[in-house]
Amino acid sequence: MATLGSTRRKTRSIKLGSPWQVLVALLLVSVLLMTFWARESSAGSGPLLTVRKAYTVVTSPLSRLGAVLGTPFRAIGNAVGNSAMSGDDIQALKDENEELRSTVMQLEEYRQEEQRLAALLDIRDAYDLESVGARVIGRTSDSYNRTITLDKGSDDGIAAGMPVMSPQGLIGQVESVTSSQATVRLLFDTKGTVSVMIQSSRSEGVLHGSYDGLLYLDYIPITQQVLEGDVVLTSGSGGTYPKGIMIGQVVSVTDKTNDVYHTIVVTPLAGDTLFEEVLIVTGRQTEVTYEPKVSPEASISPSPEDEDAVGRDQEMEYHEG
Q1: 192 three-state secondary structure
Q2: What is the CATH number of domain 119-281?
Q3: How far is it, in rounded angstroms, from Cα 298 to Cα 282?
Q4: Are 251 and 215 a contacting pair, CB within 8 Å?
Q5: Buried residues in 66-86 as b, exposed as e (16+ CB within 10 A)
Q6: For a surface tag, which of 110, 225, 262, 272 has the fewest beta carbons within 10 Å of its beta carbon?
Q7: Which of 77, 78, 76, 96 has the alpha carbon at shortest distance from 88?
Q8: DSSP characters for 137-186?
Q9: Chain centroid to CA 157
């Protein structure tokens, strides 16, 4: 009996100590694994790293699949969260969004207008013109009567016959005025004529519009050489326009047998565009010169040649030192 009791006590003792033995064993295994992992990480290879890579290869597609499958449920959660907002909150956000859109569009309009006005100031300064800026408030669309209406008139010092320019060059002439408005006949109009000259040869002729929207230069003798790309300027003849305002370039020159004059087509620098702001030349200059103004930043910035010269001087000073 004593022997049997002793055996039962030993068995109970072993069973009570088993969890501690398992814990100790796990700790030892963890320490060993950490030691092996540190050694393999330093060496860059080993069975543990191989097992880890294999595990990543197997589980990575499953992780991506889980992310894809979870997307609709996240969207539903967001929708449920948004649905908790009141109707007034949602409407307030919509109104704010529309207001921001409107502000962005208005700012873009201001930006474009600033660029156009700056270009007008540039050409005014380049020609040193006495002028008045005006906005286009009306225009005709038919090919028989190409005119625009401006928001400046006799009360602003505008008179019939004054030249009108866009940022690119001459576009027409004031035909009639009221106290607050002016009508401008464009170069493309069939009734519009300008005394001009070819810059290279100084040959003078008359430029006029046409029903097909082209500008033709007449009365240039075939004895005078005219090339595509030649610049056409106002000649100042007749006193309507100051001499020296650029109009356009020659795009084609054709001659027929027994012709006395060239048939010349000119493309204007201003083009047949939808002008929004223009300059009305109010001064009485008889001749102008195109001299683009250089910005202060550009005048200060050294040229590549200057930079090379400075570099050579610094190199010489370095060697001398």
Answers
A1: coil
A2: 2.40.10.340
A3: 30
A4: no
A5: eeeeeeeeeeeeeeeeeeeee
A6: 110
A7: 96
A8: EEE--STT--EEEES--GGGT--TT-EEE-SSSEEEEEEEE-SS-EEEEE
A9: 37
247 neighbors 194 (Cβ within 8 angstroms): yes
pTM listed for this prediction: 0.59
Q: What is the pLDDT of residues 152-209, one digit of tens each?
A: 999 999 999 999 998 888 999 999 999 999 999 998 888 888 999 999 999 999 999 8
* Residue 88, Cβ density class (10 Å: 0-12 exposed, 13-18 middle, ≥19 buried): exposed
Q: Tokens 């704010």 appear where?
A: 96
Q: Where are the domains of the chain?
A: 12-74, 119-281
Identity (one letter) of the amino acid at 180?
S
Quickly list DSSP for 196-247.
EEETTT--EEEEE--TTS-EEEE--BTTS---TT-EEEE--GGGSS-BT-EE
Coil vs helix vs strand at 84: coil
**Comparing C-alpha atoms, which of 261, 253, 174, 249 is closest to residue 222?**
261
Look-up of token digits 């543990």: 48
